[in-house]
Write a sequence for this structure.
């Protein structure tokens, strides 16, 4: 993971943790964080043509899961210095949750990104009742069209890559002159990502 991308991600997660614990008193369990990241990324993709965190997701029965975090989960737990702002904790029952090591540095995030984070986390953590992880997962599955597409076509697989371009209806069947500005941005962004020439 590129250094600047990592800093943005960990400070965004630290801010999610802060909001979650402030409003609900609940720990920021891994399931919540994964769902928040996906809800934010795919909403930004739909609104602006590119995600906030530049993560790759897979579709699972537990909704969209960010590969970079999930595949490195045990490494993140074992290496206290993997992130500066956050840590991942695993208890004896096998539950994972994120905790802050320091205050989030919001200078890594734009005003739009901060608003997306606040609106997403407060929707679930700010209800005045304990939101379950299942409710957050269900919301991510219902709202993220690209997860539906990947999950419906998974065959016998329990985990399949999500194509972000499936956020848009029939985008890959459209003619160039039919693209909206957001769709053009999404296509350009995905092409740059595949070419691995996105800025660090």
């Amino acid at each position: 993971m590129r250094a600047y991308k990592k800093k943005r991600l960990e400070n965004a997660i630290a801010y999610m943790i802060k909001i979650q614990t402030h409003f609900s008193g609940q720990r920021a369990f891994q399931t919540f964080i994964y769902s928040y990241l996906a809800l934010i990324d795919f909403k930004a993709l739909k609104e602006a043509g590119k995600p906030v965190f530049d993560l790759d997701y897979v579709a699972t029965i537990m909704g969209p899961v960010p590969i970079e975090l999930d595949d490195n989960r045990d490494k993140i737990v074992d290496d206290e210095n993997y992130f500066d702002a956050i840590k991942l904790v695993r208890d004896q029952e096998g539950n994972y949750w994120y905790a802050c090591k320091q205050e989030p540095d919001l200078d890594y995030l734009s005003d739009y990104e901060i608003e997306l984070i606040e609106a997403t986390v407060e929707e679930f953590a700010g209800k005045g009742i304990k939101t379950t992880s299942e409710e957050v997962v269900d919301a991510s599955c219902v709202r993220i069209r690209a997860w539906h597409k990947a999950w419906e076509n998974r065959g016998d697989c329990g985990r399949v890559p999500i194509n972000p371009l499936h956020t848009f209806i029939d985008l890959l069947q459209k003619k160039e002159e039919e693209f909206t500005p957001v769709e053009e941005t999404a296509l350009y962004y995905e092409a740059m990502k595949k070419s691995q020439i996105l800025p660090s």
Notes: The longest strand covers residues 86-90.
